[in-house]
């Protein structure tokens, strides 16, 4: 860790960036490979990144155990008022089978890809190595393909056999389910992938999120209050004036 990074994080300036994404989502691919990764080197002294590979996945088993959970009243009222939406339900563990069964927006292949990434991330302690691994996978023509997953694991010095063992076991299920819990704690419920949230908030700021997807650099510059990196100092005079007035009103 550089001295600037240490000072930035000690001063409380570090911006936490949480990326909620899916393995086979083209918009997730674009944001990670075209916005997040290219700008990370410019802001790594001022930011931390957290990856949540889950997206709009849901977990079956909910219906078999639902009426044994605290969701009972919610489901009943939602049904009565014709507002029942499976995507708004948090998953539950199926005590009958002892397993989770995931259903992902882009099918079983995406569930597999999400789970492999979850298991890979669990092996990596270093933030920059995590970013390199995720970017490598998401840059592949098929981010859920075993060949590309293994190739990116080797580049990141990951133990691919351990990652595979995790992905096909209850360990991988639990990791992915934990990302599901985190995803469905967002307010309002996640409706777009990728979703980008700052500073450990559970509330989605749609203005920040939408701009981040196309101009992550400017959003980061607007959030750093002290010790601005050079990339922010070099912004045009007009862009700084625009930012100033947008913060006043």
Indicate the topology.
Layout: H1 3-10, E1 15-21, H2 26-43, E2 47-53, E3 58-60, H3 62-65, H4 72-80, E4 101-103, H5 108-123, H6 127-138, H7 146-155, H8 160-167, H9 170-183, E5 195-198, H10 206-223, H11 230-233, H12 237-248
Parallel strand pairs: 1-2
Antiparallel strand pairs: 1-5, 3-4
Helix pairs in contact: 2-6, 2-10, 5-8, 5-9, 6-7
Protein name: Gamma-interferon-inducible lysosomal thiol reductase
Subcellular location: Secreted
Main location: secreted
Contiguous helical run count: 12
Which sequence of SSEs, written as H and E, runs from N to C?
Answer: HEHEEHHEHHHHHEHHH
- Termini distance? 37 Å
> Which blocks of ≥5 consecutive residues have pLDDT under 50?
1-10, 62-90
The CATH superfamily of the domain at 3-57 and 104-215 appears as Glutaredoxin
Helical coverage, percent range? 40-55%
How would you write the strand order of the largest sheet?
Answer: 2-1-5
CATH topology of the domain at 3-57 and 104-215: Glutaredoxin
Radius of gyration in whole Å, from Cα?
20 Å
Strand count:
5
CATH architecture of the domain at 3-57 and 104-215: 3-Layer(aba) Sandwich
What is the average per-residue confidence, as pLDDT, rounded to a whole number? 82
Structural class: mainly alpha
SS strand fraction: 5-15%
**What's the story with the biggest beta sheet?**
3 strands, mixed
Q: Which CATH class of the domain at 3-57 and 104-215 is shown?
A: Alpha Beta
């Amino acid at each position: 860790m550089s001295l600037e990074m240490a000072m930035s994080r000690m001063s409380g300036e570090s911006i936490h960036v949480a990326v909620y994404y899916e393995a086979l989502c083209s918009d997730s691919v674009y944001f990670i490979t075209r916005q997040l990764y290219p700008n990370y080197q410019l802001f790594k002294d001022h930011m931390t990144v957290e990856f949540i590979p889950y997206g709009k996945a849901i977990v079956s088993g909910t219906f078999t155990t639902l009426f044994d959970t605290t969701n009972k009243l919610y489901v009943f009222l939602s049904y009565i008022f014709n507002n029942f939406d499976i995507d708004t339900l948090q998953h539950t563990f199926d005590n009958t089978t002892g397993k989770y069964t995931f259903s992902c927006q882009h099918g079983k292949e995406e569930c597999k890809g999400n789970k492999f990434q979850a298991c890979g991330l669990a092996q990596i302690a270093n933030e920059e190595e995590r970013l390199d691994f995720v970017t490598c996978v998401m840059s592949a023509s098929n981010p859920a393909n075993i060949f590309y997953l293994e190739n990116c694991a080797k580049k990141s010095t990951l133990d691919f056999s351990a990652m595979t063992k995790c992905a096909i076991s209850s360990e991988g299920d639990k990791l992915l389910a934990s990302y599901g819990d985190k995803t469905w704690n967002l307010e309002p419920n996640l409706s777009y992938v990728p979703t980008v949230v700052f500073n450990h908030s559970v509330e989605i700021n749609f203005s920040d999120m939408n701009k981040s997807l196309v101009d992550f650099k400017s959003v980061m510059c607007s959030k750093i209050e002290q010790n601005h990196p050079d990339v922010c100092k070099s912004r045009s005079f007009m862009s700084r004036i625009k930012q100033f007035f947008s913060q006043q009103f």
